[in-house]
Specification:
This protein has one domain (15-134): Sandwich (Jelly Rolls). It is globular, with a radius of gyration of 15 Å. It has one helix at residues 122-134; strands at 12-18, 22-28, 40-44, 49-55, 58-65, 71-77, 83-86, 91-96, 101-107, 115-119. By secondary structure, the protein is mostly beta strands.
Length: 135
């Protein structure tokens, strides 16, 4: 038996390790996660997701549904080497810069079948850009 050494240097996300219970991914900057292109939030309805910022800068977007409709959107600057738990059901996204590298850990059964994506409207995108610039 040998130790596996796994890495990912391209843009985007790669599930570098996965077993029947959990998955570890490396998420690097990609155009869709740049502030210029951020246009949606996602949530996982059955599982939590963990993020760890290794390098660069990342703003973590979160949102809760408001009574009567709409979203209460927040942004926080992630700090390196801290674990951020996104509880199941919480809308979220990451806004990254070109040198960003994140680790993510989630249940291996997390998929589009038990997750949702919601597009942001023009007003919400403007708010996200403002919140990220202040984070």
């Amino acid at each position: 038996m040998e130790v596996q050494v796994l890495e990912f240097a391209d843009s985007g996300l790669s599930r570098v390790y996965e077993n029947e219970k959990w998955m570890v991914g490396i998420k690097n900057w990609k155009p869709a996660n740049d502030i210029a292109n951020t246009g949606c939030l996602e949530r996982h309805n059955e599982t939590d997701e963990l993020f760890v910022l290794l390098a660069g800068k990342c703003a973590l977007l979160t949102a809760n549904d408001k009574a009567g409709g709409g979203l209460e959107i927040k942004a926080a600057a992630m700090e390196p080497l801290k674990v951020y738990n996104i509880p199941r059901g919480l809308w979220h996204n990451t806004v990254t810069m070109k040198d960003t590298k994140l680790i993510l850990v989630e249940d291996s059964a997390t998929s589009s079948k038990n997750s949702e994506v919601i597009p942001l409207d023009a007003g919400q995108i403007a708010l996200v850009k403002k919140l990220v610039s202040q984070a």
